[in-house]
Each structure stands twice: as structure tokens, then as C-alpha cells.
Amino acid sequence: MTAIAVMTALTGCGGGGDGVGAADERATATARAAGKPTGDEVTVTAVRSDVRAAAAAAEMGRRLIFADRDAFQTPCRVLGVLRTEDVPKRGAVDSVTAVLKARGWGHMQEVPSEDGQVWLLEKSGWRMFVGAGKAPEGAGILFDASGKACGVPMPSRPAVSGPAERPVLP
Predict the structure, then answer these.
(1) Cα–Cα dist 170/115, whole Å
(2) How far apart are alpha carbons 47 and 69 in whole angstroms?
(3) What pTM value is reported for the model?
């Protein structure tokens, strides 16, 4: 399953476990408590929090692992995998999507798949792909979310200049 194939990429990412975003979450909570504006957009920290809550609802994972943010060209991306002992049953995945819906993720569609379960969800300019199944690396649930705005500056693109002019011979 292509969704679960991404779990292979996470195996070598070295991107930290569940505690990786804890400092970011504390900083956001501190800013809110101090009355500082945190923006209307959904942050990476908020998306990671949603994924953590959804993974806990599955009640079958060994450890939720997030890929390192530096591995992406955009800062507005969250990629996580919940490794499981067995292929997740439909009920476990339904509880994952129910938690995401309760946290504001709209259920866009369930995508037909021969070898797993796949959903596409949306929240405030973010889209999340949730896939459950088995890959050569093992079984699990994959969370892949990306957004257009996430409270951090987007990388700028280099200025594009026209084609180089031909040198003029003297």
C-alpha cells in the first residue's frame, strides 16, 4: 500500500518520538496564557497534538513517531506513524478518525484501497491523509498532514531571472 510505504521513510528519519513537540506545545500554551496572539492558522504543534490524541484512541500502538521537520521543504507538514502489532482493525481506525473529527478535522472521503484503509480529512487549510495497513516494515497507522499556513514563515523562492543573454563578441 502506497500509504504505508511512507512508513519506510520514517524508519530512518530519526525524527523523535512523542516528546519531540512537547516544548513547542508548552511555548504555544504559554503564549496563549500571556494573551499574546498566536494567529488564526492551525500550527504544526496543534496538528501534532491532534495526531497524538487520535493515536491514543487507537489503543494499540507501540509508539508514535514523527518525522523530523527539517526533512521537508515546507515547515507546514506533519508526518507521523503509529506502529502496531497487527494490522489495525476497522474499529480502531474508526476511533482514530472520530477523534480527528471531534478536533475539527472534516471527513472528506474514504479512499478505496485493496490492502488497507485510507481517509482524507481537512481542517483550516490543512489536509491530512490517514492510512492503516501493513508494509514490509510492519503494520501501523500513517498520518500525513500538510497546510498552507501554520504560524511560521514559509521559505522564499529565489528570484527567477530570464534566460542568460548571449555574450557579444567584440
Answers:
(1) 68
(2) 13
(3) 0.67
